[in-house]
Amino acid sequence: MLVLTRKRNESIMIGDSVEVSVIEVKGDQVKLGIKAPRDIKVHRKEVYLAIQKENIDASKLSIDRIGDIGGFFEKKKKTSEHPPHKKKHSE
Amino acid sequence: MKIKTKPYGEIEVDEHQRIRFPEGIIGFEGILNYFLLDSREGPFYWLQSEEYPELAFLIMDPRIFRKDYEIEVKVSDLDALNLKSKDDLLDFAIVTVPEDHSKISANLMGPILINRRTRTAKQVISENDSYGVKHYILEEMKKKKAVLRETG
Predict the structure, then answer these.
(1) How many angstroms separate the CA atoms of B56 and B25, rounded?
(2) Cα separation of B80 and B120, whole Å?
(3) Phi-psi category of B134—alpha, beta or left, where left has phi over 0 and alpha has psi -120 to 50?
(4) Distance, CA of A31 to CA of A22 (rounded, Å)
(5) B119's torsion region: left (phi>0), alpha (psi -120 to 50) or beta?
(6) Helices (H), chain B
(7) Between chains, do B41 and A86 touch, taking CB under 8 Å as contact?
(8) In terms of CB atoms within 10 Å, which end of chain B has fewer, N or C?
(9) Residues sharing a CB contact under 8 Å with residue B133, sequence separation 6 or more, in sequence order
(10) CB contact, 8 Å: A40 with chain B?
(11) Which among B51, B19, B40 is positioned nearest to B123, based on CA atoms?
(12) Helix or strand holding residue A33 (H, E)
């Protein structure tokens, strides 16, 4: 890992298009500004990891667990919310 | 056409049910092709992988238990889906069902957005920090009822 020391209002460039600047330093908190093209995803790592873990947990669903969960919900969904059988847009 | 599904075995699906995730789902990045299936139980749908019968996600409209749920995402996420009109947008939350069914939860932090015109989809990260990855559906429904009783 490359380690650089920066002061407030200084920045680093990653490639030609990503700039990370130090906006503010307060105790153990650092406020960073990130300038990046729209197609580059910038996320807090823990958020990304939390979603990844939740997806993996969700994928482990065993089908015999499904049987009774429908009973938790009184209302049947509206048919209008059913998307894929919508009319073709060419029609 | 026929595909093998996790919940229902081999079933007939229509090409219109095909949903493509050009970037995959977070944690499942290499898997791009899914079918959106109606579920036979409750207010759910399935996102069934085309290539891997064992991979299917249970999904739902989060407004079933959170009427006030609002999508807040980056413009770049909407651009990635080439969304031209709000009417083309569908959004779902992935549902997790643990051993204890009463702890069924929905992920409101990483919703699935679908452009229903192009049938492309993307899992995005909510810009609204108050949404988490585990909203206990039954608990939140109960809370809502309690509030209704108090006010009504």
Answers:
(1) 11
(2) 9
(3) beta
(4) 6
(5) left
(6) 75-80, 137-151
(7) no
(8) C
(9) A50, A51, A53, A54, B107, B108, B109, B110
(10) no
(11) B19
(12) strand A29-35
Nearest CA to B28 among B50, B2, B13? B50
Angle, CA of A75, A79 and A80, to the nearest 5° = 120
Distance CA B14, CA B22 (A): 20
Nearest residue on chain B to A84, alpha-carbon basis: B17
Residue identified by tokens 């939860």 is: B105
Element (DSSP H or E) covering residue B116? none
Six-digit token string for B126: 């909510």
- The model's pLDDT over A20-75, given as tens digits with 9 standing for 90+, comes to 999 999 999 999 999 998 778 788 899 999 999 999 999 998 887 776 777 777 65
CB contact at 8 A, A26 and B62: no
In chain A, residues with a C-beta closer than 8 Å to the C-beta of B28 are: 55, 59
**How many CA atoms are closer than 13 Å to the CA of A83, on its beta-carbon side?**
27
> Given the DSSP bridges, would you call strands B9-12 and B2-5 parallel, antiparallel or unpaired?
antiparallel
What is the value of ipTM here, to two decimals? Answer: 0.92
